[in-house]
Sequence to fold (147 residues):
Amino acid sequence: MNREIDLDETERILENLVTGRTQKRADDLLPGAELDIDGGQRVALARHIRRDTDEPALFWIRPLSAADQDPETRLPVFDQAIVRRRALHITAARLDGPRLRLDLVGGATVTVQPARSGRLLVLQDFDTWMTTIPAGEREGLEALDHD
Fold:
C-alpha cells in the first residue's frame, strides 16, 4: 500500500523505524533503520531523529559509516566528524509497506526502511560505542542540534 502521509505521521513513522519499535528482532541484533539514497547507497541510521522546531518539514538524522576499532579495548569507535547529523528537508512523504519514501527539496528521493545485514552490524557497533562515551557527549549526539 502506497499512501501519502502528513509531517506528523512522517515523524512518528521515522521514529518507529530508527528505534526498531515496530520490527521483529533478527537473530541477536536489535532492529533499526537504514537510509536508501535514490535507490543506490544504503547506510545505517542512528536511533535518534529530531524535527526542527523552526522548520517543521526539516528532520535531522545521523547516517552511520562503518566503525573503527579501538586498538586497546577492541571496541568500536566512530569519528564524530564523519557521522555528523544530516538534514532531510521533506516536500512529500509516502508510506509504502514498511518503507517511508521521502521527496526532498532539491529533487532527491530517499527511503527509510528496516535495516538489513551489514547495516544492522554498523548500528550494533554504534549502540555499543554510545555506551562507552561520557553521558554529556552521548546526550549531545542524541539531541541532533549541533555538529
User: Anything to note?
Assistant: The chain has a mean pLDDT of 92. DSSP finds three helices and eleven strands in the chain. Residues 117-130 form the longest helix (14 residues). Helices lie at 7-19, 117-130, 135-143.
